[in-house]
Write a structure and sequence with these properties.
heterodimer, A: 194 residues, mainly alpha, Butyryl-CoA Dehydrogenase, subunit A, domain 3, two-stranded antiparallel ribbon, 8 helices, 2% strand, globular, B: 81 residues, 4 helices, 70% helix
Chain lengths: 194, 81
C-alpha cells in the first residue's frame, strides 16, 4: 500500500490503545486521522466549511458507533467509510434542498461551493467528477488505499473502483487540457486522452 | 462498468498520468482543517462537559449549594424551635 507522507497509516489498526476507551483510545484516533478525514470529505464536497462540520460529525458518529468497530479492521478505512457516506448524503440533501424550492416556485439557497472560495484549476477539475468518483480518487491517489481497500470503503466491487479512478483521470485531464491556461501538457496514447 | 476494461488494464500496469495524479495529490495535501486539533466538544459528556466547561461546573455547584441552603433552612427551621 502506498501512503502520502502526511497521511496516517490508513490500514493501520488501532494498536496503541483500546479505541473503545474514550479517554486514552479515541482522542488518539481523532488526532491521527482528523486531517485525513477532513481532506477526504473536502475532496468529495469541495467546500472547506462543510468539510469541517462533516469531519466533526464523522468522529461523533464513529464515537457513538465505537461498539460496532471490529478491532481486526483498519480504523482508517472504517473512519473513511463513515466520512464518505456522510459527505455523499450531505450532497444529496443539498441537491434536494435546491430542487424542492424550484418545484414550489421560490428561489433556492445559493450554491455555497461556488460562493465560498476561489477554486483552483485542479479543484475545478475535481468538480467535474461525481462525488463517488471524487471519493475514489482521494482514497486511492491521496491516501494510498489499494483498489480492494477503496472497494471495501465504498461498498462496491474492485473493478468498479478501477473504472471510477480511470474515468476520473480522463475527465480531469480533459478539463485541465481544455482550459486556456493549460497548466500541464496533454499526453496522448492509443486510448486517446490519457 | 464493463465498458471500462481498458482503464483497468492501464491501472494495473501503472501507466497512468503521473502528472495529473501529482497535481491532485498536491492540491488535496494543501487542504488542512482550520479547527484546532482537539477532541470534539460534547463527544463524551463525562469528559467534555465537566472538563471543558469548568464555569458550568462552578455555576452548577453554586446552584446546588444555594438549593441545599434553602431546603436545609426549611428543614432546620422547625427543629430550631
Amino acid at each position: 500500500m502506498r501512503h502520502d507522507a502526511g497521511a496516517p497509516q490508513a490500514g493501520h489498526p488501532m494498536g496503541r490503545a483500546d479505541p473503545l476507551d474514550p479517554v486514552e483510545g479515541f482522542p488518539g484516533v481523532y488526532a491521527e486521522y482528523h486531517a485525513a478525514v477532513y481532506r477526504t470529505i473536502r475532496a468529495v464536497v469541495l467546500n472547506a466549511a462543510v468539510a469541517e462540520e462533516l469531519a466533526q460529525e464523522t468522529f461523533m458518529r464513529a464515537y457513538k458507533a465505537r461498539e460496532s468497530y471490529r478491532p481486526d479492521a483498519p480504523v482508517g478505512a472504517w473512519l473513511h467509510r463513515i466520512a464518505v457516506n456522510l459527505a455523499i448524503s450531505h450532497l444529496r440533501r443539498e441537491r434536494l434542498s435546491r430542487l424542492l424550492p424550484i418545484r414550489l416556485g421560490i428561489p433556492g439557497p445559493p450554491d455555497l461551493r461556488e460562493q465560498v472560495e476561489a477554486r483552483t484549476l485542479v479543484e475545478e477539475a475535481l468538480g467535474e467528477l461525481s462525488p463517488k468518483l471524487r471519493a475514489a480518487v482521494v482514497l486511492h491517489y491521496f491516501h494510498g488505499f489499494t483498489r480492494d481497500e477503496v472497494a471495501a470503503i465504498l461498498g462496491v466491487p474492485s473493478g468498479t473502483v478501477a473504472s471510477r479512478i480511470a474515468k476520473s483521470l480522463v475527465v480531469m485531464r480533459e478539463k485541465l487540457s481544455g482550459n486556456e491556461q493549460k497548466p500541464i501538457p496533454v499526453r496522448t496514447t492509443s486510448h486517446g486522452v490519457a | 462498468m464493463g465498458s471500462h476494461d481498458s482503464f483497468d488494464v492501464r491501472l494495473t500496469t501503472g501507466s497512468i498520468d503521473p502528472e495529473l495524479v501529482g497535481l491532485v495529490r498536491r492540491q488535496i495535501g494543501a487542504w488542512s482543517p482550520a479547527l484546532p486539533l482537539a477532541v470534539p466538544m460534547g463527544i463524551e459528556p463525562s469528559i467534555s462537559r465537566w472538563v471543558l466547561y469548568p464555569r458550568a461546573v462552578a455555576s452548577q455547584v453554586l446552584i446546588v449549594a444555594v438549593a441545599a441552603f434553602v431546603l436545609g433552612g426549611h428543614h432546620l427551621g422547625p427543629l430550631a424551635h
